[in-house]
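Repro:
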Amino acid sequence: MPGPEQTLCFDRQHVWHPYAAIPSEEPRFLVASAEGVRITLADGRQLIDGMSSWWSTILGYRHPALLRAAQEQLARLPHVMFGGFTHEPAVGLVQRLLRLAPPGLEHVFLCDSGSVSVEVAMKMAVQYWAAQGQSARRRFLALRGGYHGDTWGAMSLCDPEQGMHQAFNGIVPSQLFAPVPRSRFGEPADGAELAQIEQLLAQHGHELCAMVLEPIVQATGGMRFYSAELLAGIARLCRQHQVLLIADEIATGFGRTGRLFACEHAGITPDILCVGKALTGGTLSLAATLTSARVAAGIASGTPGLLMHGPTFMGNPLACAVAVAVLDELEQFDWRGRVAQIEEQLRRELEPCRNSPLVQDVRVLGASAVVEMRERIELARVVPQLVQRGVWLRPFGKLLYTMPPFVIRPEELARVTAAMREVAFG
C-alpha cells in the first residue's frame, strides 16, 4: 500500500478535484476517517468541519441512525432499476417529503444529484408549456448572483458574468437575468427591484417558461441573504404573468435558514422545488424535484405524455432509506432550537470582524455566516492556516464562510469563529 505522501503525490498528478487543475498545487489533505463534526487526517490531526461537507452533513458524520438505515438496506436491496419497479424506501421517502414540503406540491422525481434535479425542473417547465401549445416558451429568467449547478442546463442559469461558468458563455443556452437582489433579509422589498422583474416578465412572458431562484440565500454565487418580502413579491409577479416559479433549495432545504424550507420565510409555494445536499445527511448522493398536480397533469396532457428523464440510479433504495432516516431524525431532533442557538453564537462571535479594515461585510442567517473580505482570499495561504488551527473551511473568492453541522457544540463552533476572526484581521 502506498504511504500518505505517495497517495497525495499521485492525487495531485492524476485526480481531478472540484474547480481544480491537473497537476495541482493547491493545498490538499488526506482524510482517514470522520465522526460527528470532526474529520481525522491520515497524519492524525483532527479538524472541526465548519462546512458540513458543502452543507450536506447536517447531522454530522457516521450518525448511528443513518449508518443503521444504510446497513439494513444494504443487506436487503442496495439498488434496483426504477423503470417498472418500485420499493418501500422510495415510496416512504416521497410520502415524508410531501408531508414536509410547502403545501400544494404533490409529485416527486427522485434523482441522483442537485444539478440533475435542476435539469429535471427545467425539463418539467419546458414540457409543461409545450403541452399547453406554447412551445415558444423555452427560456428562463434567473437572478444574477445565483448558482444552480454545473451541468449544461443548470450552468445557463448561473450568473453569466460573475459566475464560475464564463468559459461556456455563448455555448450554453441564453437565459434572461434580473439584477442581484439588493433588499437584505429582514428588510422590506425594494419597489424598484420588483418593478425591474415585472418589466422583464411583461416583456418576455411569451418566451419564458419559468423563473428560477434560490429562495432567501444565494449560496455559492455570493452568500447573499435577501428579503423575504422580495421573494413573496417575485412569486406574486410570476403568478400574475403566468410564469412558473422554480425554487432551488438544494443548499437551503432541511433547516439551514431556520425554517425547514427557505420558501417558508415568505409563505410561498413554488410550482417546482429542488432539494438535495442535506437530504441524505451527506451519506449518499440523492436529490429530488417536487412539483404541483397542475404541472404534472400538464406534462401528461401533451406529447409524448411523459416526463423525458430517467437516470440509471433514480430512486436508489440505499440512498432513499438513508434519506428517510434523516427526515425521521429531523422530526425527533430540536433542530429549530439548535439552529437558533448557532445563529446567535455566529452573530455574537463574528460581529467583531466588522472592525477589521480588511472586511467588507459580515452576514449571518440561521446556521450560515459569511465574512466578506475586501480582497480575494489566497487559498494556498489561508486554508493551511485554518488547518493548523484545527478547523476546516474552504473560502471562495472574497468569502470566508461557515455552514456548520446542526450538531456542532458551542465550544466547537467557537473554534471555527475564532479561526475566522484571525483570518479577518490578517
